[in-house]
Amino acid sequence: MTADMTTAKRSERWSGYGLLTVMAIAVVLPFLSVFLASVQPAGTPVVGLTWPEEWSWGNYEQAWSVAAFSDLIRHSLIIAVGVVPATLVLAALAGYALGTMRLPGGNAVAAFFIAGLTIPVELIVVPLYFDLRGLGLTNSFLGVILVEIALFMPFSVFWMRTHFQSTPQSLVEAARIDGASPATILLRILLPLARPSLTTLGLLVFMWSWKQFLLVLVLIQDTTRHTAPAGLGFFVGQNTTDIPTLAAGTIIVMLPILILFVIFQRSFIAGLLQGAMKG
Amino acid sequence: MKSTRRLRRRLARAACALALVLPLTACDALTPGSTAAVTGPRSVPSSTAVPEGDVTLRVQFADAPLMVDALIAAFEKGHPGISVEPQYKTFSDYVQNLKLTMTSDSAPDIAQYAVGMTDLAQDGHILDLAPYREAYGWDESIPPVSLDQLTAGLRSEATGGRALFGVPAGLSMTGIYYNKELAEKAGIDGPPRTLAEFEDQLAAAKDADLTPLGVGGLDTGGLHLWAALLNQTMPMDDYWDWVNGTKDATIENRAGITASRLVVEWGRKGYYNESANGTAQLDSTAQFAKGDSVFLINGNWAAGQLATTMGDNVGFFPMPGEQAGDPTVASGFSVAYAVSSRTEHPEAAGAFLDFLTSPEAGQIISDNGFLPPNPEAVAKPEGVLADVAEGHRRAVGDDGITTFPDFAAPAMLDRLRSGVQKLIADRVEPADYLDSLQDEWEEHHAE
Amino acid sequence: MPSRPPVRPPGARGRGPWRGYVYVLPAFLVYVAFAVLPALHTAYLSLFEWDGVTLGEWVGLGNYQEILQDSVLRRSVFNALVLVVFFSFVPIVLGLAMTGLLARYRRPGMGAYRFLFMLPQVIPLVAVGVTWRWLYGDDGLVNQAFGAVGLDGVTRAWLGDFDAALIAVGLVGTWVLSGLCMMLFLSGVQKVDPSLYEAARIDGAGPVREFVSVTLPHLRGELAVAMTVTTVAALASFDIVYVTTNGGPGEQTTVPGLLVYRLAFSEGKVGLAAALAVVLGCLILAIVYLVNRLSRTET
């Protein structure tokens, strides 16, 4: 290798990192701007990116207790805690059957699930409101939970089906010859192996549930039962002038999902990328 | 594989059959909605007794949170068994969700009267308060005229007289605030007597290198400006006909064109704050308080806040008429409260509404820049609050309080907001703008 | 019963092949009841003129006709398509460009970058919208940045500007989705056999030719996915628009999702809202179908 080529390579390498860093800064700046605004003294006018002269964490207290973000977070958690386990169980069961058994018309059923990947909330929200109101399920967490489970079901079934399809058929066969029932095979053999897939799916479903806005906006009219994004959406209209508190509220809404993202970043990123690929 | 293909074909056939059958069956049973009335009570009981025991009332509203908080605090002091939980929404959120909210099972016990309440009253979602009007003797504590605005055009089934769907807690009104210091700097010596004089003042402010007029066009500021001008150019009866949906009423006339042209012209001359269309009303008020503009278009609901932050430096006047002797006409509405048919505590709600008519409540209402239903019962306000009260007095005296234009149809608020934004940015011909309003009007009032 | 030992399906063990459906049933029921039926119900409601309360009136395809005629409704569909450029086209081009630059050599330290680039994906769009609403404001970071480089003349409230608002909203989408596209492509490239690059390099291929002849063909699947995901995000962009501009100024940023919400729940035009929702759904379906069709025929 000539000296010339090495320098070319090195400059290319550094310019690559340079570009990546520029993009990374573009991603981080908005977050930084909001964060710095959230630690400015309450009620002060804030301009763009300003380093606070004194760090005041009081805005978080203000947003948490006075603006009731604690309630919003709690409601979002209640919904997520309802949605995630139910989705995992239902998807694992359906994915197991569609992925390992030869069901008559199984492919058509799988395709029917997959078709739901393209359903936007906008398409179903109008009749949902009227139907669920008839059932007394508006303004209730249960109503939102059921609809979210249904919305996330296409992806979840697809994800688990793909997973079970990729587990070695010989394992299942061996267990079957030993006389294990289908339920035993699922519980004892396949599910323990599916832990990573289930974890990733659980994280994705939690995230989608946390992000859901339009559905909650329509199904939950009682502002005291709003979830984090819906509450933030209302809060912004009322408090545009108090940037520090608004910024603190925004950070509070982001925080739970951010913490999960930091802890499980490997699963998360793999899930987002593979999930997109498989879907 | 073959079997799935067969199944798919079968599914497709079934879907086609379904698609064919649906329209045929779409006659009665499957038609959405119903003609059935809402079950349950349609009016309040006729006694003023409030049952013992702890009760929580939820109040949803869109105007003057500080005033409502103060009213609630005063009410709770006198009624230890009843606690009131305020739920504040911004005006556009409130109006956008009002029908959903009031028809849902968790409707608040008490809600601010706004566009759409008429429909809700007709469908029985809010209670007829006429029995309370007699039982509590509201006709004595408030001028009956202000109650008669709130009948939704119905007669009371309970009393046989006029129905009542809200109790007013103060009258609102839009107008112009001015920063006295900045006005002086621009050589402006007092409130204008005519519209032309106001235009001269705007020009003077512009010449002094100041921002003449602050407008919060992102949400409702623009429409207040347009309506304030329209109030001066359009005969009041024509305007009322249009807002009330009287047959053959129209906004496509000379007055509408003149008002809309003024909005465009002022924009061309650079009278508005540069980012008017990107500024929310709350923000434009905060900017005005900081001294960013000489004038501000807003309503009396901002008076309390401005009095606190600006002290003696702020004044208020209603938009002046074309001639010096013209009556004072301004958009305004009773900030009234209605009671949901779904409430479990109509008696406690009645006690709260009755409190709103008391002198104590009137004082709180007046302190927050609203005209109390019974102005004689309160102490004389000072500073900008006195200006507002004076404006109110003149407008009421001239019978010149007109309803906001968005009351003309449920979708009108969106048309007005986006339409005035276009006027401000000089993106639409006044005639086309009025045409879009009239289209919406005709669609709604087609029957 | 088709019995084909030795791979006999476990669920079919002597109890009829349908028995396995017991496992599918719960998921199926929830999915049908709360997603499929509501979607069909939307299509059904779209054939009525209904205010949400009183008895509706059958109008056939009248609501669809109105969508074609009403300038606001048409405008919303047009705006959604403009957003596709910013949510889909720009991130994909940006992602491809970055991939072309980065794909030739393995780089250590990508983990930290990957974390940052995926960050906008996990944040609720409402929070993203609130953040950008402030960044675009009079006192926001965007104006501060322009001011810092001496361009005070262009500063404005971007979301209130007739010419800039839609682009500003679109760029929020670019911000959210560029990282995802890039990471998708970069992870796709890792599956390419490094020897192909070696071979290309020995042939004297520069970065551009290398990208076109080696990298791009291997990314067909990823491209299809990126297009699908970003387009759906662009067409269903209710959250961001609702909190940033609420459709204004004028109708510059009004999108179908916003109108579905407004028409159905505050303007009492439920049938029209349903029709618009159906149009939106069909648009998404058509694009997904088209993208998948194209990516498949080319392989």
UniProtKB/TrEMBL annotation, chain B:
Transmembrane segments: none annotated. Keywords: Signal. InterPro entries: Bact_solute-bd_prot1 (IPR050490), SBP (IPR006059). Residues 1-26 form the signal peptide. It comes from the Bacteria. Pfam families: SBP_bac_1. Coiled coil: none annotated. This is Extracellular solute-binding protein.
From TrEMBL, chain C:
Keywords: Cell membrane, Membrane, Transmembrane, Transmembrane helix, Transport. The keyword Transmembrane helix applies. PROSITE patterns: ABC_TM1. It comes from the Bacteria. Gene3D superfamilies: MetI-like. CDD domains: TM_PBP2. InterPro entries: ABC_transporter_permease (IPR051393), MetI-like (IPR000515), MetI-like_sf (IPR035906). Pfam families: BPD_transp_1. The chain crosses the membrane at residues 21-40, 80-103, 115-135, 164-186, 223-243, 270-291. This is Sugar ABC transporter permease.
